[in-house]
Design a protein that fits this description.
The chain is 52% helix and 0% strand. It is built from four helices and no strands. It has 130 residues and is mainly α. The N and C termini lie far apart (41 Å).
Length: 130
Amino acid sequence: MTSDDTCHDHDHSHDHSHGHSHGHDHSHDHGHSHDHGQPPGMALANEIINLANDGLEQGLAVEDIAEGIRHAAANFSAFAFFRSEQLPKDPNGTVESFVSLFEYYLRMHQPEETAPQGLAETIAQAKSEL
């Protein structure tokens, strides 16, 4: 397995206006924890990515790993929704946050030589119809 076959953790802020190019190098293995003042949730996200990469190395299908992570994220997000003291409570904020992060990572992981796959456009269209 090459390092290109795994997902990588990141310590960048997720201000989606920072404009990373498609040429951002994801081929390096960090091999250490990023705790450079990042939010605690980002450190946990990096641990989850490491678990996913371990699953890839064990031969699990990428689709099965992704489905498991989505299931866990939805489950825990619903759990947290009812325990949050943040008001007003609106589940759409959680959904919008996920879509924004997903669009960001679609751009980050898209190989340079391929055209957009259409999913980003579908998501954008769905958001515009809401």
